[in-house]
Design brief:
The protein has 231 residues and is mostly helical. The chain is built from 10 helices and 3 strands. It folds into 2 domains: 75 residues, Winged helix-like DNA-binding domain superfamily/Winged helix DNA-binding domain (Arc Repressor Mutant, subunit A, Orthogonal Bundle); 139 residues, Up-down Bundle (Four Helix Bundle (Hemerythrin (Met), subunit A)). Helix content is 72%, strand content 4%. The N terminus is likely disordered.
Length: 231
């Protein structure tokens, strides 16, 4: 597992200060899988991951259990942890599940977000557009994650936020592998449309924008059936 690009000690220290060790382990391992630093088909052990991250076996085991629940890994006793493949057909199924939930996020945010929440949301949308134009894959997906997390946070529904976290992680993993950088700006525009519907508290506008985004995502997913991963 050497050379997989583990965050440095200072970065890990910041994460530890903000959340539990299990959450830190989850975030770090998830990002390694999303960015293919732990590639599909890789077989590693709990002890190897614990050593690389300088974390104990218990938080690693808890993180892997969560990653197994969203389909990122398979845990094989006495053999190790297998990173699962990225499945295009499964992603099409995921989009069917996500669309009505994204509409619910928009509706809840319109009703419950504060004016300060909406100001932050608009700023994050502008940040996504800026990173999309730069075509830097890591920065773009980091900006998109911040926007998704803010939208669900401002919906002020803990059950919805917990559900969306796993779905967004699965989508992020797929798109990191398959979304062409020359489509980043087009995708960002759809997200901006949703945000504009939310910040103006216009439910029909926001829900219509969600529908257009998912039409785009469905088409882009089907295009990926004919090509290999881009990273």
């Amino acid at each position: 597992m050497s050379g997989v690009g583990i965050p440095n000690g200072g970065e890990i220290g910041v994460l530890r200060g903000a959340r539990s060790l299990a959450e830190t382990a989850y975030d770090l391992i998830e990002q390694m899988i999303v960015s293919r630093k732990l590639a599909p088909g890789a077989m590693v052990s709990e002890s190897e991951i614990a050593s690389e991250l300088s974390l104990g076996r218990t938080p690693i085991r808890e993180a892997l259990a969560r990653l197994k629940a969203i389909g990122f890994v398979e845990v094989h006793p006495r053999r190790g942890v297998l990173v699962t493949p990225v499945d295009v057909i499964r992603h099409l199924e995921l989009l069917e599940v996500r669309r009505p939930l994204d509409e619910t996020v928009a509706r809840c945010a319109i009703r419950r977000a504060s004016d300060l929440d909406l100001k932050e949301l608009r700023g994050l949308a502008a940040g996504l557009v800026a990173t999309a134009e730069g075509r830097d894959r890591d920065r773009y997906f980091a900006a998109k994650r911040l926007l998704h997390e803010a939208e669900t946070r401002f919906a002020h529904n803990g059950t919805l936020a917990a559900t969306m976290a796993g779905l967004h992680a699965q989508s992020r993993r797929f798109w990191y592998s398959y979304e062409p950088s020359d489509r980043f700006t087009e995708s960002a525009r759809y997200h901006v449309e949703i945000v504009e519907g939310i910040v103006t508290r216009d439910e029909s506008r926001a829900v219509g924008a969600v529908a257009r985004l998912f039409g785009f995502l469905d088409a882009l997913t089907r295009e990926s059936l004919d090509r290999r991963p881009l990273v």
